[in-house]
Design a protein that fits this description.
There is one protein chain. 10% of the residues lie in helices and 35% in strands. It has one helix and eight strands. Strand 3 (55-62) and strand 4 (71-76) form a beta hairpin. The protein is mainly β. The longest helix has 14 residues, at 7-20.
């Protein structure tokens, strides 16, 4: 025998189902030695951009020195973005690159956070990627 579900229960299950299907951006980049203490941001690859996205807002944080402002920037496209987009190297204009004092040994962990926004500046989704910037990790 099938049990009756109230409209509120159906609404709650629907909401939970929608949340579990929420899209998350995939972010990737490659550190290069030339990015050390540079104002030229690395190339950023972003996948999973939802329809109706007209702005990608990007920030970088240093997990080992959170008080340092590395800046970031944004890229706008009023016509909308494709589901995959590559921000070219140097695209972020208010950016300060990684410059850890312990680059030769451990380095610091940096994270790029990308937020997709619609025309009303509403956040549609976001994603991030964290990587270490050190002499051991940077290959070129």
């Amino acid at each position: 025998m099938m049990k009756y579900m109230s409209p509120i229960t159906v609404l709650i299950f629907s909401f939970i189902s929608t949340l579990s299907q929420a899209q998350t951006l995939t972010v990737d980049y490659t550190w290069k030695r030339k990015h050390q203490c540079s104002t030229s941001s690395p190339e950023l690859k972003v996948d999973g951009i939802p329809a109706n996205t007209v702005e990608l807002s990007i920030t970088m944080i240093d997990h080992d020195m959170r008080s340092f402002n590395h800046g970031g920037g944004f890229v706008k496209n009023e016509a909308g973005f494709p589901s995959s987009y590559v921000l070219p190297e140097g695209a972020l204009k208010s950016y300060k690159g990684p410059c850890p004092p312990n680059f030769a040994s451990l380095g610091h962990d940096y994270e790029f956070i990308v937020v997709a926004k619609d025309k009303s500046n509403k956040e549609l989704t976001k994603g991030s990627k964290k990587k270490t910037f050190s002499a051991k990790e940077v290959k070129e």
